[in-house]
Amino acid sequence: VGEARPTVLVVDDDPQVLETTSAIVEALGYPVISAHSGGEALSIIRADSSIAVLFTDIRMPAMDGWELGRRSRETRPDLQLIYTSGHSNSPPPPGSAGYGPLLPKPWRSSQLAELIVQALTKTAPA
Amino acid sequence: MRRFWEGLLRLVGAEPTAEAQILERTRQRDEAVAALRQSNEQFRLLVEGIEDYAIFMLNPDGRITNWNRGAERIKGYASSEAIGQHFSMFYTREDQRAGRPAEALDVAARVGKFEAEVWRLRKDGSRFWASVVIDSLRNDNGDLVGFAKVTRDITQRLQQQEALEKAREALAHSQKMQAVGQLTGGVAHDFNNLLTTILGSIDIIERRPGNLPAELLRLLAAARHAAERGAALTARLLAFSRRQALEPRVIQPNSMIRAMSDLLGRTLGENIVVEVVQSAGPWRTSVDPNQLESALLNLAINARDAMPNGGKLTIETGNTYIDEEYAAAHAEVKAGQYVLIAVTDTGSGMPPDVLERAFDPFFTTKPEGRGTGLGLSQVYGFVKQSGGHVKLYSEPGQGTTVKIYLPRSESEPETDASPQRGDVASLGRGETVLLVEDDEGVREYAMHALKVLGYRVLEAADGAAALKLLESDSSVTVLFTDVGLPGINGRQLAEEAHRRCPALKVLFTTGYARNAIVHNGLVDAGVDVLIKPFTVDRLARKLREVIDGR
């Protein structure tokens, strides 16, 4: 069985949250790339096919997380999405539902770990 | 109206002057008198026939001299009952004692008119809100000959005004709550970002416990504790501002409340009796069951604090209909079918000024340090976010009832519940785990889970491959194997592995219930088994138990 190195792309407009989140993902054992905005994230996704999971904040200026999720799926239909938000009930716009789970802030690293594991294995074993 | 009556009087008191020819005068007078009689009669009929106004006359002492149909209808007395009586009988007892009837006649006599909106009594003793006008009646010489009274029942207008006022207040209150909600929601959003950074940083430091002296670890634990409290607080603020993450499920609240009664009993103590009254054939509603439970617990705790000397807590469920009228009087409430949950205590109750502010965040009547003032706010926000309505009824000394209305759902009830999230208290310390699993999906999931937990992982799809790996790598601490494997099964693999490495720990996993495995003799009782499906958390705890020999 090969040793896959799936990369997690972390997106948050809050630089402190971005830094901590990236450090946690790294501590969980995954290579990580961080982006400060949806636009930056999109160009990374287009350029780097090793990215397996997109972990993005929802409330961001210019392009929000839902929009980023939708547009990155256009480029990479197999990309796994996990959303996070400090306003947990920000409703997804029509069409973006079902793209991935929403992890409300403040999350614990164990919760993120669980979702990354599930994303990388698509679904939990039944 | 006054001019009308004065005109009437002039007519009644008119005397034709006598001059010119007697016959002519007599004829004219007869005609005039006949016309006057006719006019008087018509006027009497007109006044008597008026139904919407009580119109009647008093003599100068205040005794009733005539009575129209409106008076009969509004006040309830027939003219035979009213005529000759003193008009003060329509006044309330308080007004009578205060001398109001004489006062009113006095004002009317002095300035010609008395006007007021006051409570008056009907024959049956009920009160009505009356618009009253009393005009003094004087003859041409200016002598007081009596009073004309016109009374109108404006109770309905008063009720409409009150209803309008109530609706305005409700709207203002709801706007205030929304403004406060927006504010707290914004604060909570920013705090959640801060807390994510704080808790996340603590997580990272705690994953390397070996590098820190015990004293710093204690401080770290204190920091985590404080951050967790902050997280709990922002969660309640989000709940109030209707922005918490809800996971609604179609449920029928009765079974949930029954399941809660143990917990309630423990929370409330021995001095408080809990009674659950449930209607038959209850409707279903779509609501987050965990949050509903927490709302009911909040209400129970409030009830307990309101009953320091004991009492009774009643939880009642039923089906109800909110009508258009009720909906109009309450902001953000839609008419329709609702599931009602009413929580009633026999405690100290609340005065109106406290009742009015009871849902405000941080408003509390509890002593400093006892309550956050967020319990009812949380209930309010949760119910509103769920499309429902919550209403408080309370009287000092009588107790309090909180009514929660949740919109009826016609969908089929959902069962199940997603696994509880918790913290990984038990992480790996770089130990090597030999993972044996023939299902590729499960193996991949377990491999990732073990890695995020901080273990080194070796994988095998069957027993033979596993034994080969065991031979080549002596660092394996624990064998984590499926029971049902192709070739040699998990139990046989574990026995064989034990022969080679006697210190090896073993954790089995299987999709079958534990009883079945033990019964079939696949594994012995007392061995460690993790039932599928498992979460990262459960795997973390179980693995730590096995490795640490607990």
Poorly predicted tracts of residues of chain B: 416-425
How confident overall, as mean pLDDT of chain B? 84
Tell me the number of strands of chain B.
Answer: 17
Strand content of chain A: 15-25%
Q: Structural class, from helix and strand content of chain A? A: alpha/beta
Biggest interface reads: A-B, 39 and 55 residues
Task: Write structural notes for this entry.
The complex is a heterodimer of chains A (126) and B (550). With 126 residues, chain A is α/β, with parallel strands linked by helices. Chain A contains 4 helices and 5 strands; from the N terminus they run βαβαβαββα. The mean pLDDT of chain A is 85. In chain B, the strands form 3 sheets. In chain B, strands 6, 7, 8, 9, 10, 11 and 12 form a 7-stranded mixed β-sheet that branches. The longest helix of chain B has 52 residues. Chain B is rod-shaped. At the A-B interface, helix 1 and helix 4 of A face helix 7, helix 8, helix 14 and helix 18 of B.
Main features:
heterodimer, A: 126 residues, alpha/beta, five-stranded parallel β-sheet, 4 helices, B: seven-stranded mixed β-sheet, five-stranded antiparallel β-sheet, 22% strand
Short summary:
Chain A is built from 4 helices and 5 strands. Chain A has about 130 residues and is α/β, with parallel strands linked by helices. In chain A, helix 2 runs parallel beside helix 3.
Write the layout of secondary structure elements.
The complex is a heterodimer of chains A (126) and B (550).
Chain A: E1 7-11, H1 15-27, E2 32-35, H2 38-47, E3 51-57, H3 65-75, E4 80-85, E5 102-104, H4 109-120
Parallel strand pairs in A: 1-2, 1-3, 3-4, 4-5
Chain B: H1 2-13, H2 22-49, E1 54-58, E2 64-67, H3 69-75, H4 79-82, H5 93-97, H6 100-111, E3 113-121, E4 127-138, E5 144-153, H7 155-206, H8 214-240, E6 249-251, H9 253-268, E7 272-278, E8 284-287, H10 289-306, E9 311-322, H11 324-329, E10 336-345, H12 352-357, H13 375-385, E11 389-395, E12 399-409, E13 432-436, H14 440-452, E14 456-460, H15 463-472, E15 476-482, H16 490-500, E16 505-510, H17 514-519, E17 529-531, H18 536-548
Parallel strand pairs in B: 7-9, 13-14, 13-15, 15-16, 16-17
Antiparallel strand pairs in B: 1-2, 1-5, 3-4, 4-5, 6-8, 8-12, 9-10, 10-12, 11-12
